[in-house]
Amino acid sequence: MQQRQLGRTGPTVSALGLGCMGMSALYGPADRGESLATIHAAVDAGITLLDTGDFYGMGHNELLIAEALREVPREKVRISVKFGAQRGPDGAWLGYDARPAAVKTALAYTLQRLGTDHVDIYRPARLDPAVPIEETVGAIADLVTAGWVRHIGLSEVGAATIRRAAAVHPISDLQIEYSLISRGLEETILPVLRELGIGVTAYGVLSRGLISGHWSKEAPTAANDFRAHSPRFQGDNVDRNLALVAALRQVAQARGLTVAQAAIAWVAAQGTDIVPLVGARRRDRLAEALGSLDVALTGDDLAAIERAVPKGAAAGTRYSPEQMAVLDSER
A Pfam family name for this chain (predicted)? Predict the structure, then answer.
């Protein structure tokens, strides 16, 4: 397995990470047995970075990971956890809480659910507008000193917030959506990350399946599936976006790749400081994603991919207007 270091101060991890959210929440029903088998297969293949959030299924995802890793030596994996999102019993999003006391309480529950004595990377899921980032990072820094957290990460924040956070404590990586059709970090955020020596863990590299080559608008979508409400999957937007996928398929097939492999390999080729996270819920999808690691895209390949899917060509925003409004990374 190829390795990449997350920033100057972060851990060395596999060049591909496994995002576990879909095994518990936001993409409709998941098969528990297949989810566990997929985590096992990922670890067996050399994937060392597992990403979760304490609000994925309200603790379900952490418990699932704990079960999957029961027989795996703790030092074999790096677990990244997001915290702070507040949700109601009906699943409604209620905002964010990143006060120092809330940070430490959230970690206490996470450690219990994961059955571990430390989290490798701990990060607020979003910026809490009511709490200065310095206070949130300072609270996590206390947890680092105590040994319960190894590294501090950020998620979906902009350049100014990144600078303020890094002034308090070294930051290992920023987790942010990055794909062929979500390239917002390139203008101002990525240059600051590279200036400060902070890595990127890129989620949504297949844009929630939209550019995976497997999704079609005829596929049934459960009411609790994020895609049932995502602008990119609605109305005329989805037709325009699937036309981009068709163009990408032609390029991928000419290179002997699947659409998903081309899309993942493109993200990985944007810098050795970037680690793509794939949200595979099944072993066959995981195997396909792992195949992207064998791909060395040439300059001509990258140019062909970008001609097929030009920057800014996606129709629709990556979240609803209400969610976009609370993203510090979009300001």
Answer: Aldo_ket_red
With a CB cutoff of 8 Å and minimum separation 6, the contacts of 193 are: 7, 162, 174, 199, 200, 273
- Residue 66 burial by Cβ neighbours in a 10 Å radius (0-12, 13-18, 19+): middle
Torsion angles phi and psi, residue 269, rounded to 5: -80, -5
Per-residue tokens: 70:
């029961």
- The Cα–Cα gap between 262 and 267 comes to 9
- Which one is catalytic: 56, 96, 122, 203? 56
pLDDT per residue as tens digits for the range 179-218: 999 999 999 999 999 999 999 999 999 999 999 999 887 7
| Assigned token pair, 331 | 């300001």
Q: What does the alpha-carbon distance between residue 286 and residue 122 come to, in Å, rounded to a whole number? A: 25
The pLDDT of residue 220: 64
* 56 classed as catalytic: yes
> What is the spatial distance between Cα 33 and Cα 286, in angstroms, rounded to a whole number?
15
Ordered by where they begin, the domains of the chain are 3-210+271-296 (3.20.20.100)
Asked if 49 contacts 17 with a C-beta cutoff of 8 angstroms, the reply is: yes
